[in-house]
Amino acid sequence: MKRTFAAGVAGFAALLLASSAMAGDARVFETKSAINNLSTVMVDGGKARDLTIGLGSGAYRRPGDPANMFYAVSDRGPNFVCGDVQDVLGVAEDVVCKGKKVRIYPTPDYSPSIYTIFLNDDGSFDIKDVITIKDQHGVPLTGLTNKLTVAKTEKPVDANGNPLEQSVSSIDAEGIIRLSDGTYWIGEENGPSVLHVAADGTVIERIVPAGSEKDFDGAAYKVSGGLPAILVTRQTNRGIESMAVSPDETKLYFMVQNPLANPNADAYKAAKNTRLFVYDRVAQKLTGEYIYQLDDPQTFRNDPSKKQNAPRISEVLALGNDRLLVLERTDKTTKLHEIKLDGATNILATRWDDMSTSPSLEQQNDLSTIDLVAVNKTLRFDSADYPEAPNKLEGLAIMGDGALAMINDNDFGIKGDPTKVILIDGLVQADKF
Question: 421 phi and psi, to 5 degrees?
Fold first, then answer.
């Protein structure tokens, strides 16, 4: 059935999700836009790999924007680990990695960018208004790893195994919102950090864990240590991958993708407790930190696992004041949970932010024994009920007619996956504030 986008909904909306009886009622949008092509990568003796732009690391639509458009953000660019070399490049792992533990960046000059997506009635989408994220001198940022000493990081190499220089300025953009003043806030995975970005893509400020500021000395933008120091214990590649904003734009919400490696990786692997933060834009400081417990990995029906670190948080969308929709996923299954902060314990600046606390928060999945209350979760969507849904859904936006749009991170087409937008009519109802 042809679908025409209605006029935009005025103001923010409180969203009440419909029951799972609507499962399977979805439309999928794809694009053949030339701007979606990135490059072709090939090494001697290997196979050619056509890469596309990984548009879907985060998404957002402002109230009042055109009804059929939303913003999307790309992450650090094509990258993969040594174990994927044979599949991606068609050569033996040692040809590229040379016996070292590194991460491969086949297009190291790629710059994380903000894209404007328009959905069309014919099931296609167009990519417009690309904004490159850049420093105060107008130099585009790369997605290569930072020169971290306080937090752990990875060594980057190109497709031929040549070492790449790390950068104090580079970012791994993962979550995005846009304010009514035109500026963006972005959740960043590597630091981990959050960034305030001007309308033209220039970084205004990067907020990093306290005590790690010197690792960013020389960055051509302001760096401040406004996040808890304990965030430097994030597991590599499991930092901040989300960003949401309250209806009145006074609060930002973001989450750590997985429990911290606190005090070590063994704790991270077994832990259920990840951390959700509230940032007061007026006071310019954090005012809340809450516990979100990840689901049992066996409940992700398309790819059940025994590994507690298989589920992760890839997006947060504000449904109202301190009321959020959280995207929790594995590689092949995505769930959406509605949560409310009311009734949950605010652990900001308590002993649970102290790295000397033992056992740590991450070592105690039974919160009743330590008198803490996690946010309450209500399951609203499970992609196992939607065969149309692609893997690795990471971005959420509410369209002008109230439909829920979800976009996947296709990892720049490294494994051949296209970028898709799945639009579900009737899954949400919009009430004006």
Answer: -115, 125
* Cβ partners under 8 Å of residue 358, min gap 6: 263
**Nearest to residue 119, comparing CAs of 59, 38, 200?**
59
Euclidean distance between the first and final Cα of the chain, in Å? Answer: 31
Paired with 196 in beta bridges are: 185, 205
Instruction: Write down the residue that tokens 């051949």 correspond to.
Output: 416
Cis before residue 297, ω within 30 degrees of 0?
no
Does pTM top 0.90 for this prediction?
yes
**Residues 158, 144: Cα–Cα separation, whole Å:** 11
What kind and span of H or E run contains 86?
helix 85-89
On the question of pLDDT at 15 being above 50, the answer is no
Please give the structure tokens belonging to residue 40: 């072709």
3-state secondary structure of 431: strand
Mean pLDDT of all residues belonging to the chain: 92
Peptide bond before 247: cis, by omega within 30 degrees of 0? no
**Least trusted range by pLDDT, from 83-97, 278-292, 359-373, 416-430:** 416-430
CB 326, CB 313: distance < 8 Å: yes
**pLDDT in the model for residue 92:** 96
